[in-house]
Amino acid sequence: MVLRALLSLYALTVAANAATADFKLILEENFEGASLNPKIWNIETGKRRDAFNSAEAVDVRDGHLVITTWTNPEGKTLCGFVTTRRKVELVMGKIEARCRFNVLPGTQVAFWAQSQTYGKSGKAAGAPMDGVEIDIMETTGMMKGEYQYALHWGPYGSPTEKHISSKHFAQKVGLEWHTYGVEWDATGYRFSRDGQIIATDVTCPASRAPEFILLTSESNIKSWNGERPAAGYGHKSQSTNLFEVDWVKAWERVSK
Questions:
Q1: Contact by Cβ (8 Å): 114, 214
Q2: Top-level CATH class of 2-253?
Q3: pLDDT in tens, 82-102
Q4: Which of 1, 91, 179, 252 has the fewest Cβ atoms within 10 angstroms?
């Protein structure tokens, strides 16, 4: 009973601190026009996993960023990998995006943040300065409209230093527009949906490194995200393997 009371008090304190924090808006992207703003966004290209990141998978239309994972006539599966790397980065702040998705087996999509120095120290204990992979909304075709958050720290590939903390949300929300977000500071990470905090994570060290924003799709022939159909996903005009983003906003914490 005492432990439960202390945890409840901690949750209330965190919520109160979050509600009174001062933030400065550093990014408000509504995807107006016919293409991405090159001062904010990169479309990264090249082979990744069992697919290829390509500008052909990325469109801006009707006020939305649309990432379509599809298969071209040569049998290559094309994915979209959109980032603010080296253009917009924030330290101990808040990020939100309004998204919807329809993801097929063999594909995963994510709204996430990452640092350019992730794993640099070679130790999990170095995560505050190295940075953390913050998967704000991550889903696969196997989740059928559900999603998870995940925090990764420590160098990738290390059996002893790599760590992960995550939570799966069972609501089937993919086909609806929802706002997903995270706010982090020295007390932990607070994940939200539609403006309401739905999870707090104090397991992962708080990243103090500059974090950039990613909106991505990835595909494997067979992996944790399921098995890609043998014939692929069809031409872009036919593929229903979609990740749509209405807007993105980012704030940095202002010191009082």
A1: yes
A2: mainly beta
A3: 999 999 999 999 999 999 999
A4: 1
